[in-house]
Design goal:
Elements lengths: L5 H8 L12 H9 L3 H11 L7 H13 L3 H16 L1 E8 L12 E2 L7 E3 L2 E2 L8 E7 L4 E2 L4 E8 L13 E5 L4 E11 L11 E2 L2
Antiparallel strand pairs: 1-7, 1-9, 2-6, 3-5, 3-8, 4-10, 5-7, 8-9
Helix pairs in contact: 1-4, 2-3, 3-4, 4-5
């Protein structure tokens, strides 16, 4: 990578006052870049991206750098965060039902946003049927979520406007067949200021 590589372009965007949870600053990231420690610098810049109001372009630069280093999960995460800057952040604690139960998963959920199950988020169709919505799952902290396990996840809805009513504490259900495959309790629901509305739908009570 030369002096115009995406990591250095991203570093320019980070405020000098920004500090990661571990106490690192952009000066630390630049120091690693100067010593050709690109993967460490990427990790630091990823952490710093949570410390200030990042833009989509920031995460796209980090994704480009991760792609150059063949860090596929890091690339997928940066693209995920880029989308969250546009659509908002939904985090939840997901508990999968026991594999012996109807509708349960019998294999682990991959952690990097591949699975796209349906979710009952409390909306109903005009005829009274549940209006199930699609959202991808990113498993936090671990590479995957085992059957019957419980863990923190992030959700990326296909149509985010249908999720804006959710607040921490709300429960939604995950479906791959008719019975629920899991139950998620919302822990964070942060959306852009612009509000969406869609006529013809009401929330279930």
């Amino acid at each position: 990578m030369d002096s115009l590589d995406p990591l250095r372009q991203a570093a320019v965007m980070v405020p000098r006052s920004a500090t990661s949870e571990a106490g690192s600053t952009v000066a630390d990231a630049i120091d690693y870049l100067d010593h050709n420690e690109y993967e460490v610098a990427l990790d630091l810049l990823t952490e710093l991206g949570e410390a200030y109001a990042t833009e989509t372009s920031y995460w796209n630069l980090l994704a480009d750098a991760a792609a150059e280093m063949n860090l596929h999960r890091a690339k997928a995460w940066c693209h995920w965060r880029a989308a969250e800057t546009v659509h908002g952040i939904i985090r939840a604690d997901l508990r999968l039902v026991d594999p012996a139960q109807p509708g349960a998963r019998r294999t682990a959920i991959p952690g990097d946003g591949i699975l796209r199950p349906l979710w009952n988020v409390g909306l109903v169709m005009p005829e009274g049927h549940p209006d199930l919505r699609v959202a991808r799952i990113w498993v936090e902290r671990v590479p995957h979520l085992e059957p019957s396990a419980c863990g923190p996840v992030r959700l990326a809805p296909l149509r985010p406007e249908g999720w804006r009513h959710l607040k921490p504490g709300h429960q939604i259900t995950m479906h791959e067949q008719a019975p629920p495959a899991g139950t998620a309790t919302i822990t964070q629901a942060t959306f852009p200021v612009a509000a969406f509305s869609r006529p013809g739908f009401r929330r279930s009570r």
